[in-house]
Design brief:
Order of helices and strands: HH
Number of strands: 0
Distance between the termini: 34 Å
Shape: rod-shaped
Strand content: under 5%
Length: 53
C-alpha cells in the first residue's frame, strides 16, 4: 500500500487538540474545579493544566 492511511492522518491532526485542550479540561473537571465564573483566574486551575498535558 503506497501512501499514508487516512486514519493515521486523522490521528496526527487531532493529537494537539486532544493533548492540549480535551485532556486538561477533563483533568480540571476530575479535580473538582468549577469551570464557570472566574476559574481561569485561580492558581489551582493553572497548576492543573500543565500537569495534565
Amino acid at each position: 500500500m503506497a501512501g499514508r492511511s487516512v486514519l493515521d492522518d486523522l490521528e496526527r491532526s487531532l493529537h494537539p487538540v486532544s493533548a492540549f485542550l480535551v485532556i486538561p479540561v477533563f483533568a480540571l473537571a476530575d479535580a473538582g474545579v468549577d469551570l464557570r465564573g472566574d476559574a481561569l483566574g485561580r492558581p489551582l486551575t493553572w497548576a492543573i493544566i500543565p500537569a495534565s498535558s
